[in-house]
């Protein structure tokens, strides 16, 4: 696909200026148009006898059957809109009218377009590559995803079943294509092979394509990454292949310091992170923590990559709770996207301080202390964020292998969190007991958090449909009485216009308006 983000800056600048001018002039154009309409109505008020015409047409000539048909048709149309809005809201979780207004009308009216947040990887010059905004990111890469060859395939060897869905693997293929193989116009031959390799559904076909890319260029780091992920049957073997890929990646960046792309940096960051995860799995936890900290310092724009979640898990394994609290203080911020790891780790630290001496019977007699109340509130906050986690931590539901992608606040995120953090909760004496008491006494099996509010346009169309239906029924049952109400309504409606006309006549000379009406 051709990249048009940097092409023809003059046309883009002209478009932005045009939008800016339209948004600036829109308010003034509306005021001018409204003023011209008022002046035209006043000028034509006497010659065309608008008042008598409106009165005779709308109040005298038209029969009650017309008003019944008018209000009935309005009720029918608003009812159809209501049905469509309700169906669209149940299926997509948003209002169709609101979505169209925000997407198409808001930019023309000067609304601020949603800007993309910091990307997963930084480019060569330090700028972040464009990525969707946080609110649009519904599916996230699992920060602690397992290795396919060394871990996921063990399940396949034992059961003969695939541990990952095709949808999950397809998302990973898209990630690898986007981050590792560069722009389509600048693809090297081995990159083209790797583009195809990531898309292959058969693991053996992917591995063969990786070897083909290595034959074409021995310094194809992406090929070694694929072999480390999928062909290596042990973590030690995967680490060896990742180290080879790291050496190649550093050499490529050093030898092409002025010409390497952001994709080379992306690949280098990915390799370093996976090497840190290898060290963590092989028991070299302090080394893993150092690698993660160095990576976060070297590439500070990696917020959405969630390396801090890997760091939190490794620090919990070291039982370095003060360091865990320091990391939480930095990332447990209201302006940053939350995760089950952030919320439940914060709850674990607070629960750990009181859980060893906590007793439900004693708490019910004397009440909760300040520290116990803080722990309970932290658990409440975590459970409200993701209510699926406690059942896995309390082993009320069986754990399965975590997926490569997770849905925030969903069951997949709960599986991924509990798979790696259950041991840390068990290590804190009484923490699971406190969680059990809080979960059983506070929350239901099915969470309704956050509850979706009905969009404004559904409420508006529902009210309009009901109001017009009532008018149609009343007009059909009491035509004379509704006629009286209609006359009173239109008289009240045109009263400000008549008042405005009288004031204009008092300010302007009659000869001016006479000459204007002749024109």
Automatic annotation (TrEMBL):
<feature type="transmembrane region" description="Helical">
    <location>
        <begin position="21"/>
        <end position="45"/>
    </location>
</feature>
<feature type="transmembrane region" description="Helical">
    <location>
        <begin position="454"/>
        <end position="475"/>
    </location>
</feature>
<feature type="transmembrane region" description="Helical">
    <location>
        <begin position="65"/>
        <end position="89"/>
    </location>
</feature>
<keyword id="KW-0472">Membrane</keyword>
<feature type="transmembrane region" description="Helical">
    <location>
        <begin position="481"/>
        <end position="501"/>
    </location>
</feature>
<dbReference type="GO" id="GO:0016020">
    <property type="term" value="C:membrane"/>
</dbReference>
<keyword id="KW-1133">Transmembrane helix</keyword>
<dbReference type="Pfam" id="PF04184">
    <property type="entry name" value="ST7"/>
</dbReference>
<dbReference type="InterPro" id="IPR007311">
    <property type="entry name" value="ST7"/>
</dbReference>
<dbReference type="InterPro" id="IPR011990">
    <property type="entry name" value="TPR-like_helical_dom_sf"/>
</dbReference>
<comment type="similarity">
    <text>Belongs to the ST7 family.</text>
</comment>
<protein>
    <submittedName>
        <fullName>Suppression of tumorigenicity 7 like</fullName>
    </submittedName>
</protein>
<keyword id="KW-0812">Transmembrane</keyword>
């Amino acid at each position: 696909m051709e990249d048009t983000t940097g092409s023809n800056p003059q046309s883009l600048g002209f478009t932005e200026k045009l939008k800016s001018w339209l948004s600036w002039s829109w308010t003034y154009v509306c005021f001018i148009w409204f003023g011209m309409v008022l002046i035209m109505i006043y000028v034509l008020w006497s010659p065309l006898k608008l008042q008598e015409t409106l009165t005779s047409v709308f109040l005298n000539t038209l029969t009650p059957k017309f008003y019944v048909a008018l209000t009935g048709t309005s009720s029918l149309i608003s009812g159809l809109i209501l049905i469509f809005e309700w169906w669209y809201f149940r299926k997509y979780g948003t209002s169709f009218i609101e979505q169209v207004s925000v997407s198409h009308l808001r930019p023309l009216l000067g609304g601020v377009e949603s800007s993309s947040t910091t990307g997963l990887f930084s480019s060569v010059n330090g700028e972040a590559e464009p990525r969707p905004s946080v609110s649009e990111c519904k599916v996230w890469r699992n920060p602690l995803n397992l290795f396919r060859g060394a871990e996921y395939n063990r399940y396949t060897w034992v059961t003969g079943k695939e541990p990952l869905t095709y949808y999950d693997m397809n998302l990973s293929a898209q990630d690898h294509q986007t981050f590792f193989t560069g722009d389509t116009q600048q693809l090297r031959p081995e990159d083209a092979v790797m583009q195809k390799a990531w898309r292959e559904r058969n693991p053996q076909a992917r591995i063969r394509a990786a070897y083909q890319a290595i034959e074409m260029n021995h310094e194809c780091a992406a090929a070694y990454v694929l072999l480390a992920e999928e062909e290596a049957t042990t973590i030690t073997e995967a680490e060896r292949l990742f180290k080879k890929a790291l050496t190649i990646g550093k050499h490529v960046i050093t030898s092409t310091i002025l010409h390497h792309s952001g994709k080379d940096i992306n690949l280098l960051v990915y390799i370093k992170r996976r090497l840190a995860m290898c060290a963590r799995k092989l028991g070299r936890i302090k080394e893993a923590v150092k690698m993660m900290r160095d990576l976060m310092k070297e590439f500070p724009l990696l917020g959405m990559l969630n390396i801090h979640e890997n760091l939190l898990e490794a620090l919990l394994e070291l039982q370095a709770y003060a360091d865990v609290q320091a990391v939480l203080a930095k990332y447990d911020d209201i302006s940053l996207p939350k995760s089950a790891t952030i919320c439940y780790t914060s709850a674990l630290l607070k629960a750990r301080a009181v859980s060893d001496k906590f007793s439900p019977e004693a708490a019910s007699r004397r009440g909760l202390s300040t520290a116990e109340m803080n722990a309970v509130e932290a658990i409440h906050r975590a459970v409200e964020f993701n209510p699926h986690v406690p059942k896995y931590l309390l082993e009320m539901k069986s754990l399965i292998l975590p997926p490569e992608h997770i849905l925030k606040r969903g069951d997949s995120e709960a599986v991924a969190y509990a798979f790696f953090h259950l041991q840390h909760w068990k290590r804190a004496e009484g923490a699971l007991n406190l969680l059990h008491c809080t979960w059983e006494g506070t929350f239901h099996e099915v969470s309704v958090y956050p509850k979706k509010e009905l969009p404004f346009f559904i409420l508006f169309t529902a009210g309009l449909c009901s109001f017009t239906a009532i008018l149609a029924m009343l007009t059909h049952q009491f035509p004379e009485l509704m006629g009286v109400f209609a006359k009173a309504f239109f008289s009240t409606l045109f009263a400000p216009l008549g008042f405005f006309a009288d004031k204009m006549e008092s300010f302007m000379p009659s000869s001016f308006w006479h000459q204007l009406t002749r024109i």
